[in-house]
Every structure is written in C-alpha cells, then in structure tokens.
C-alpha cells in the first residue's frame, strides 16, 4: 500500500487539496483533523472542559468514531450520528486543538489511522502524519501559507456559510491555533525531515492542487525507479 502524508498548520487548505489529489490519484482520503474535531464536539456536548485531560480521557470509552464515504467524500460519525457539518465551526476548530494536545486522545486515534493506511492507498492529512502516524510514508509534504493568507481564506469560507465573523478575529484564531499546535507536548506540529515544503501563499486553489499533485506524482515516480 502507498501512503501520502500531508501535514501543515490550520487553514493551509490541507483537506481541500488532499481530497482533490486523492480523487485524481484514486486514493482514499483521510482527514484526521475531522476525527479530533469530532471528539472535541462530543466532549463539549458532554459539558466537559476540552482542555481538561482527565475529563476528556474519561469521555473516550463512550465515543465510537467511524469514517464513512459518500460519493468519495469523507463522513464522520460519532455513536451513529453524522457530525460532518457540526464539526466545521470555529468553536469546533479550537476544541480540536485542545483535545489534540491530550496524549490519551492521540493514542485513541493512532491505531485507527494506521489501520486505514495498512488496508488502503491513502492520502492522510493532519499535524503529525509524517512525523508520528505514518513515519514511513512514501510521500511526505508539509503544506503551509502565511497566517494572513490562511486567515483570509478561512474568513471567506465562513462568510460564504453565512457566519458572522470578522477577519481580525479569524486571524487571531489562526495565530492562536498555530501557537497551540507547535507548542503542545504531545506530537507538536513540525515539518518531517524528509518532507517537501509546499508554500501556497499567493496561489489559487487550482494552482495549489496542481502543485501538490505534481509533487506526489514526482515522488511516487522516484520511488518506483
């Protein structure tokens, strides 16, 4: 099986770009960030503090998380409920950042993520795919863009959904998320030594997708040679 690991900060477009690349290459797309968002959502619904490691760990035995696919699009289910839309709010993003810093949560999801990769050709994106989850992936890419660019993209996305937000607040969230992800004790965000850096600042979505697909094909061709 072939594994492609795409890591990078919040708002870099990993999910959209990885999903498009997976479709073009006929690989299975796995959005690990959605898995953390789902746990954060469930913990918040349970009335627990998403920063409280003990409280969050106590919720895990009652969480049955599944990934499904409808028309090639990943769907996330928690205890039978499709939460794919509910996890796409700014609040869910911050909750995901909080629970992902808890070692018990990462352990809870790690084997599930690896098992998917053992059974399928995958493109998996997240914060620690190339460094922790799939350290032996044949292709590793660190996808990034400037904080301002990532905030602009996220702001436009939220506005299109009808959410009442300001660019300044979105930028603040992006910067805070970057700080949380790079400074957490458990599997902090960092570029794997053997990962290719791909900066999409100033590139359109189509140009970014083309860039990543080109990098993947080039790497796979080199691996076959």
What does this protein structure show overall?
The chain has helices spanning 14-25, 32-45, 53-59, 90-99, 103-119, 129-133, 147-160, 167-183, 205-224; strands at 3-7, 28-31, 65-70, 73-78, 81-82, 122-126, 139-144, 196-199. By secondary structure, the chain is an alpha/beta fold. Helix 1 (14-25) packs across helix 9 (205-224), helix 2 (32-45) packs across helix 4 (90-99) and helix 7 (147-160) crosses helix 8. Strand 3 (65-70) and strand 4 (73-78) form a beta hairpin. Strands 2-6-1-7-8 form a 5-stranded parallel sheet, sandwiched between helices. The protein has a 3-stranded antiparallel sheet with strand order 3-4-5, covered by helices on one side. It is globular.
Provide a short characterization of the protein structure.
This protein has helices at 14-25, 32-45, 53-59, 90-99, 103-119, 129-133, 147-160, 167-183, 205-224; strands spanning 3-7, 28-31, 65-70, 73-78, 81-82, 122-126, 139-144, 196-199. It has 225 residues and is an alpha/beta fold. A hairpin with a 2-residue loop joins strand 4 (73-78) and strand 5 (81-82).
